[in-house]
Amino acid sequence: MRKPDPNMGKDRVINNKIKLRKGLWSPEEDEKLMKYMLTNGQGCWSDIARNAGLQRCGKSCRLRWINYLRPDLKRGAFCPQEEQLIIHLHSILGNRWSQIATRLPGRTDNEIKNFWNSTLKKRLKNNTCTFSPPNNSDSSEPRDVVGGIFPVHDHDMMTLCMDSTCSSSTSMPPMVTGNQFDPFPVLNNRYDMTGTACLFDVPTCLTQGAMGEAFYGDFGILEPGKIGLEGDFSLPPLESRSIEESNAVNNSIEMKSNNNHYNNTCLSNTDQSYKVGDMFGLENHHWQGENLRMGEWDLEGLMDNISSFTFLDFHVE
DNA sequence: AAACTTTACAACCGCTCAATC
DNA sequence: GGATTGAGCGGTTGTAAAGTT
Questions:
Q1: Span A175-209, pLDDT tens digits
Q2: Global pTM value
């Protein structure tokens, strides 16, 4: 894409030290690194940089290898199926690009991140729906929906956009019942506290859409039963925490049942203690009675369902 | 055709975490 | 237990290429 800066790659000697090169990699550097990696394999990156005769820091070599030179990289445009999968995974995992990348063979976290930021995010944003407030809502009005994604305007973060598919579902959770509008949609919008695209929780989507039409186009639907849950549910945000970390903070996460109030809607990313009102009047064992701990929701099980994206011949770890 | 704007993505930066000393 | 080092991650930047005016 970009041509290497003719001056950028030149070694510069400052204070008798060869200054490490920065910027775009030249084909020669690529060749050196590639050759070295193929003959010696991966090791200490700073050693690799030195031994391969590159005036690059190990970090730079690592990045170049991982994001560009690795032989198993797919490269090229993302196919629609991959797009869908990214959207799906992002709705579950948030900005955990590396985790998303592990589920997209041949794609790197950087690639996916760039694709998301430059293309998908914008596309979702542009597909702003035309949701009207409950009082004057027009259910016949078409809604812009792309593959189960319900973008919102930046200025309207708290406005939940409903797909007619969802709103016509007979298995509608209390969030939307007929013209009833969830006053606290953010609880069901696991993504984007910063105001770009806004996605439903995948499980929420499922509860709304899976019973009727498939939410994920040709890839089939994710059935709550398959992901270790028997009914409606929602996921707390995962941003800025690994799954392991999330499990570690199990005890700080309270999801208390409270039949008549959607109380406490604070989902600040920095506040890991969420009290979630009884969004759905659930009776399944995950929601009954006492606190639901985060570890009880089966993220791995959820991720297992990626296997329903049959276009990919891989299995989720 | 030139100037300007937008898009796409490679690469860098800063941070965290884990291993080692 | 603290310091150091390396790996890895996510956010951000820089810029070539493409598109538009």
A1: 333 333 333 333 333 333 333 333 333 333 333 33
A2: 0.53
What is the C-alpha to C-alpha distance for residues A94 and A102, in angstroms, rounded to an integer? 14
Which tops the pLDDT comparison, A27 or A252?
Answer: A27
Estimate in Å the CA A45 to C1' B12 gap, whole number.
17
Which residue from A245, A204, A230 is spatially nearest to A287, judged by alpha carbons? Answer: A230
Residue among A123, A261, A264 at smallest CA distance from A199:
A123
- Spacing of A119 CA from B4 C1' in Å: 22
Q: Which nucleotides of B are covered by protein (CB under 7 A)?
A: 7-14, 17
List the A181 CA – C13 C1' distance (angstroms): 41
| Domains detected in chain A | 20-71 (1.10.10.60), 75-126 (1.10.10.60)
Identify which has the larger pLDDT, A299 or A110: A110
